[in-house]
Design goal:
Elements: H1 2-12, H2 20-25, H3 28-41, H4 51-74, H5 80-106, H6 116-138
Helix pairs in contact: 3-4, 4-5, 5-6
Length: about 150
Amino acid sequence: MALSAAYFFLAAAKESKTGGGFALLSLCPMLYAVVSLLLVYFDKTYAMNSPLKSYQLLLYISMALFFSAEAHGIIHRPVPFRYTFFGTCCLAFAAALGLSQIVIAFHDTVGHGFSVLECAIRISIAVYAAVRLFAASAVPAQEDSDG
């Protein structure tokens, strides 16, 4: 998670984002999503067909696919449809799960055990995906100049 945070800070910086180091660092959020996906999948707290577990699995799958599409953009091989589709899915699932679970975490009387830190991370990822999607839509598409 710390390497993912380093990637997010460098992505927010105004400097040029070229080089192999930044491209490798862009894989860290995807790796975080895959590890979280495995942790949720093998977690025995909820049943396999629990809706909460299904939503969390969908969140981490869409998050991994969104960050892989973002890594494609960093190495100058963007696929706009894939980036927009996975970004929208990541935004929807992260915002829905993050906001609903943080409300429950603050007002929990039953004892669901949602972590405020995990909810804040999900909300931050939703905000990041929203900002990246709206920034990508503000940039005009480049015309191919093959001649």
